Amino acid sequence: EVVGILCLISVAASLDFKYHHAEELEAYLKGVHAAYPSLTHLHSIGRSVEGRNLWVLVLGRFPTHHKIGIPEFKYVANMHGDETVGREILLHLIDFLVTSYGRDPVITQLLNNTRIHIMPTMNPDGFEATKVPDCYYSRGRYNKNGEDLNRNFPDAFENNNASIQPETQAVMNWIKNETFVLSANLHGGALVASYTFDNGNSVTGSLNGYSRSPDDDVFIHLAKTYSLNHASMYKGTGCDNRQTFPEGITNGYSWYQLEGGMQDYNYIWGQCFEITLELSCCKYPPADQLEEFWNDNKVALIEYIKQVHLGVKGQVTDKNGNPIPNAIVEAKGRPHVCPYRTNEHGEYFLLLLPGTYVINATVPGFKSMLKTVEIHNSTGNFSALKQDFSFSEVSVRSRAPSCPTSPLYQELERASAAVKPTLHLLVLMTVLLVIFK
């Protein structure tokens, strides 16, 4: 028994810079969990088409469950099976976090105040299927059913009629079951931090070649946080002479339009701000370059996690102090197409840059409450500003309809295009009613 434990601890201690296939990846994650049982929680959120586990290692002072006031953060890599750098640097990030806890004051505070979920591979089948590593493209990009997982989520702009894959469904369920606030998904094939929206229409400004979300300023800040802390991404040189990205960031739609992407899904349906990190010009580089990739990304990976503590957070309660789930809490002037609601603990988290905001809390059927808040940069304190709301006249648990998965922005576009005809129609209906009465 002792020998077994020692073997596990040595697995956790010796992580080489090489590619780890499914069995080695699983052994490594199990080894880390065995060596750091109170700091980590290992679970599978589902299985791939070929039945491989979709492993997630959770790290934090309370790794097994959500704690009120502690935001949830996630990194997902290897969604395209042949884009491999993210898969390996997330293993090294795990190694760095567990070995620095208790030794490095910043990492210790980060893990005490944040619950960090790390999924090294969302497409294990695609990775295993990539027999001949290539810088540009291989069939391993897709899952076993030949589907591109980053075109497979419900889309807010058009019906993409995707047949939802097991890997995608597992991630959608995971997003639904956790209160994720901030996230990034790690890709390869370029060197840039790309942010929402990836798709768009006239409502979001796509006619001008840019698809703007209500939180565009926050997304630009998040993308820059990564690129400016990366060894070279901020230079914006791209991977060939044709492509340049000022400061190493881009709006997804400006770069190229895609539907059914994971980052837009997170933001609209998951209330989670996600950006896409393209980490290497070569999709599947030689293993001897992995150490350099880790060194290039290490600071950026940590600085990005800290941004989960931007803005404001709090709880909405009734007159008895009980949490009110599904209360709508948003900053004025930033309405989300799917309103942001409190979780089962009555909690909300809003990522906002420093400044003055009016926060509007609404319990359906009751009067809204407005509070003006002054937000400072709180990432160094590892806690967003706290602002609670108490509804003295409410003693009910508000049940709200969940957001429909139909293309929400499509409806908005129709509505804005149809304002004039609608008025005519209303006048006509009124006239007809008067006549028939």
UniProtKB/TrEMBL annotation:
Superkingdom, taxonomy of origin: Eukaryota
GO MF entries: metallocarboxypeptidase activity; zinc ion binding
PROSITE patterns xref list: CARBOXYPEPT_ZN_1, PEPTIDASE_M14
This protein's record includes keyword Glycoprotein: yes
Catalytic residues (positions): E278
One Pfam family of this chain: CarboxypepD_reg
Peptidase M14 domain segment(s): 18-308
GO cellular component, one term: extracellular space
Protein name: CBPM Carboxypeptidase
